[in-house]
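Hi R.,

Here's the chain you asked about this morning:
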Amino acid sequence: MLQLLQDPAVRSWIDEQRKPPVAVTTSEMMMQRITGLRERLAALAAAMPRLPDEFRNASGRLLGELQGRRPVSVLLLVIGFLALGTGAERLFRRVTASSRKWVVTRPVNATSERLHAIALRFVFNLADIAIFAVGSIGAFLALDWPPLLRQVVVAYLFAAVMLRLVLMASRFLLAPDHAAPEDAERFRLIPMGRAAAQFWHRRLALFVGWFAFGWATVDVLKILGFTPEARAVVAYALGLGLLVIALNAVWTRPLPGSSEVAETGTPRRMSHTVVASLFSIYFILLWGLWVAGLMGFFWLAAVAFLLPAAIAITEKASRHALRPHEGSGASGQTGLMAVYLDRGIRALLIAGAVLLLADAWHIDLVEMTSRDTLLTRLIRGALSAVVILLAADLVWQMTKTLIDKRLTRAQSVPSATSEVASREARLRTLLPIFRNVAFAVLAIVAVLMVLSALGVEIGPLIAGAGIAGVAIGFGAQTLVKDVISGVFYLLDDAFRVGEYIQSGSYKGTVESFSLRSVKLRHHRGPVYTVPFGELGAVENMSRDWVIDKFQIGITYDSDLEKARKLIKNIGQDMAADPEFAPNIIEPLKMQGVEQFGEFAIQIRCKMTTRPGEQFVIRRKAFARIKQAFQDNGIKFAVPTVQVAGGGEAAAAVAQEGLQLVKPAGAAE
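And the predicted structure, written out as tokens:
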């Protein structure tokens, strides 16, 4: 050991390890990056002239592997196992043709039936690929292949299966083969026209096919002994093909809302050109980052573009697939299944993007959890914050969806004609407030949890919020009074949305609530915004029933019994009238003589109706009573003046009255 330590080389290495690390400045780091990029490009340029030799060596190695075998026989073997896979797939299609036709032609009358048909279609497409893969791989394994050729065939077979999987996913989402509008509407998950669906299906097939077989080609070149620089040159040349396909798709894509590819109108053509130019610059920049070897920035730019697009497409597809059936009468509110599907796929996409970026930037997430530096704490906090926000978003969307569906069901009740309708009216009052409170609570809890995950001590924040709440409570007693009064009004079920109430000088129909006030729409139009603390006693005129009483004056010589029977018949007729019957609880009837007036007998009438309907029913009753009394000789009493007396005294009084009313200066 002592001899080893006395070795000059070992001592020099130990001294180097004891030296403090030299800090690298930003400019030095940039120079290292530029130098590395220059060396990389120089290596690629030097590898290009060697490509013909690389291909000759690879072909010689492959031909040496195939000695004793004719190329035609090898080609026939490859075609044979591919034909066997294709034949097995065609046979499966022929056997299941009737079932496929039934899936396409079966009637769809509900969302569940549409989802069932889409699932069956997906299963059949996946089974096609499985049969093709099993048939091809089985035939491949049954034959005796040279080791080198076996690797080459496996690479291209994997590329073919990858292409088939992508084409299956494209047909599943776009349904480009269905020409009938009803079939396309049933199976197309991404809403678009048939021409647009066919366009994107073909471009996606071309792009993925070029990518898959190009990837397989680069792997085969590695198997055949190509140098890394030569393989990189071939890969970048094949990447130019991907760039051309992407640029072609951008410039020839169909316009939104149009089934044709050609532009129609100057504004749309200009917008199309601007968007296509921006996408072209982006794709060229992406290819440049790949060639330069800046893979961290390449994947960051790719994820920044693909992740929002994938989330938007997923949301459209889930909502379009789970939309209510047109003839079912269901509302357009999104169901819980759509929320689960949309938010679940979104979480998976974000998690996949994070893992992809971590791999591209060479970040070991498992190792990071065991280190405790500022950077690792920030990264762990950011990842935890993303998870917390995704969970909060899922809970909020579920809560909001449930409340909105319940509100839609409550609003479908036309009027408070039963106890069930009254309960629905109360829900229309309470659920919007509960939705706002739930959002506020979720937002506050999520923000506090995110701050805690980022390393912020939230204990002082909570304590400070409590102190601030007490201070606000003392300083804003009116506000607190309004909020607490509103809570107890709602708990007491004092009024609901749509009811007519009166409190002091304020009266009107309840339109909406906030945490501290209620909006009342007066029957003449004005809107009162009344704080709960100022309401006081509330008179609710829209609950259960209303007793309406009124008096009618008739002459003293009228037949009271006849009048009673007429009013009773009118009440029974109105109670049997379909226009008024739903709103009449007890029909109109005469209660008797209320009082003897100076010139009339006051009779009192009574009826019980639904709240707010007494006015219309009373007007109709007045019109019928007038007509019935007129037809039966019962006269309404009116004020009269009667002068009694006779002889010369009466004449003198009359003459005196005429003198009093004669205009001044009139002739005798």
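The chain has a mean pLDDT of 76.

Let me know if you need anything else.
M.
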